[in-house]
Structures are given as structure tokens and as C-alpha cells.
Specification:
alpha/beta, 2-enoyl-CoA Hydratase, Chain A, domain 1, 8-stranded mixed beta sheet
Length: 293
């Protein structure tokens, strides 16, 4: 009701743009991470941009341009929920445009849209859950290092990478992964509905496909980019307005906090954290490399 009323008033508002307006929000990078220096996708980092996009006067729709290999399931789901809540509140249709990859949590962001588009060579899917790490117990034995851990709670040291793997620990982790996976699958089915064309054994194994194959499977609705598709929907005079987040100095200029000139007054602690970003860069590289990127 609120949206319908304001839509009518917009016609008589001299400030309403003459051309159709579609705000564009870019959701790029690995999802999750609590350190602000990492520059990852989180609800806290994107909430303001999303709110401004959906509140934009005269907006005919909101476009999400997604390029993400996934990350933490909680942050992906929180972003998904916020997009759907804003779309319902403002009664605005949402379009998603996948670039290089929209996989795992990146695909969870895409299904927040009413329609999903991608390029033929985009990587789409990976509807699954993964946990990865290393075991160092044999290395410690070889170099003569003793691990000393003291806990209150029998399972507090579960999955410790410095001790031999236990079957019961792995079973517990797999139960947790199963719960998260079932929630992901249910979300995709809810959002895509009858558009899905493959069976569960094919779609929800964690496999991923090209945009062309994803279209055949009903994971996306069409092939195309944001500019051409929105022009076809709303006309050649469409006004695509990029809505950005405010970035701190270490993220400006496309940098990741590495190799930037140290600002005056930067503490040694913060400088050390910047150097520590090298480790995070390796982890981020691993996320993208899973999809050949």
C-alpha cells in the first residue's frame, strides 16, 4: 500500500527523474570475516548501500552485480535475508547479474533476486558446504614438539589440527555440515521453485556449471549483463545508478592493504595487521582458485 501511494505521487513530483532509475549494488569478494582490514562481504559492510538502493526515489527495480566464490554461510544468509526484507518493504523487484562466479554463498546471494542472469562462461552453483584444514600431528612428532592443551569440557578440543583426527569429531562436523546444507537446499528450492529443471542428486551435490548449463538447469533465468538486460526491460534511456559503500583508506584504489603508503600516525599494531593480510590473501586466493579463477 505504501509503495503504491508513493509511486502515484512520484508522477507529480518535479524531483522525480524523467528516465527510469535502477540502482546497482555490487557484491564482490569472499563472504564473511570479522576483520575490517579484510574487505570481505558482510551484512555490516553492505547494509547502508542496500538500504540506499531500495530507498532511491523512483527506483523501478534494484540490480545486484555479484562476483563471489562464497564464504561463511551465516553472512551469506544474513545478506540474503536483508535483500528480501528490503524488496518486500519497498515492493521493488530485484535482478541479479553474475559475473565471473556466483558459487556457494555467492549463489545464495543471487537467489535473493527475483530473476538471475549470467554470462555463458560464468561459474554458477556449488550448492554445498565445505570445511578444509590441515593436520600437523605427524609433523610435530617428527620435529619433537609436544602439544599441551587444557580444557574444561570433554569436547572443547574437537578437531584440533595438532592432534590425530578422531572419527567421532569428523562425524560431528559432518552432522553440522548436513544441517547447513539442508538449509541451503531449502532456500534454493523456495526461491527457484518450478524453474529448477535438474533432480536433487544433480543440483545439490556441490557441483558447479557454466552459465549456459546453469540456464538449462533452471539455476538462472537468462544470459546477459546488467546494462543490456535492464535496457531491454526499461528502455534505452534507463538510468543505472551505482550505489557504493564508503571504504576506508586501506581499501581505496583497489588495494587490499598491502603495498600502500603508511599514513602518518599509523600504529605499529595496525601496520602488523596489514602485514598479516598476506595470510588472508592466500586464503582468499584459495576460494577463487577452486573455480579456476
Amino acid at each position: 500500500m505504501k509503495r503504491t501511494l508513493w509511486s502515484r505521487l512520484d508522477r507529480f513530483n518535479p524531483l522525480t527523474p524523467a528516465s527510469p532509475v535502477v540502482p546497482v549494488v555490487r557484491l564482490t569478494g569472499v563472504i564473511g570475516g570479522q576483520d575490517l582490514l579484510r574487505g570481505r562481504l558482510t551484512l555490516a559492510g553492505q547494509a547502508d548501500a542496500l538500504a540506499r538502493a531500495f530507498r532511491m526515489p523512483g527506483a523501478k527495480a534494484v540490480a545486484l552485480v555479484i562476483n563471489s566464490p562464497g564464504g561463511t554461510p551465516v553472512q551469506a544468509y544474513q545478506l540474503h535475508k536483508r535483500i528480501r526484507a528490503l524488496a518486500k518493504e519497498h515492493m521493488v523487484k530485484v535482478y541479479a547479474f553474475c559475473e565471473d562466479v556466483a558459487a556457494s554463498g555467492g549463489y545464495m546471494l543471487a537467489v535473493a533476486a527475483d530473476e538471475i542472469f549470467a554470462e555463458e562462461s560464468s561459474v554458477i552453483g556449488s550448492i554445498g558446504v565445505i570445511s578444509a584444514g590441515f593436520g600437523f600431528d605427524k609433523l610435530m612428532e617428527k620435529i619433537g614438539v609436544e602439544r599441551r592443551v587444557y580444557t574444561s569440557g570433554a569436547e572443547k578440543g574437537m578437531l584440533d589440527p595438532f592432534r590425530p583426527e578422531r572419527a567421532e569429531d569428523v562425524a560431528h562436523l559432518k552432522d553440522l555440515q548436513r544441517d547447513v546444507h539442508e538449509g541451503f537446499v531449502g532456500l534454493v528450492k523456495e526461491r527457484r521453485g518450478d524453474r529448477l529443471k535438474g533432480d536433487d542428486e544433480m543440483l545439490f551435490t556441490g557441483a558447479f556449471w557454466s552459465g549456459k548449463k546453469a540456464l538449462d538447469l533452471g539455476l538462472i533465468d537468462g544470459i546477459g549483463d546488467v546494462r543490456d538486460t535492464m535496457r531491454k526491460r526499461f528502455g534505452e534511456e534507463i538510468d543505472l545508478r551505482l550505489v557504493t559503500t564508503d571504504r576506508a583508506w586501506w581499501m581505496r584504489g583497489g588495494g587490499q592493504g598491502i603495498g600502500l603508503r603508511r599514513p602518518e600516525g599509523l600504529t605499529d599494531d595496525l601496520a602488523g595487521r596489514l602485514a598479516g593480510n598476506l595470510v588472508d590473501a592466500l586464503e582468499t586466493r584459495a576460494f577463487w582458485s577452486r573455480f579456476g579463477l
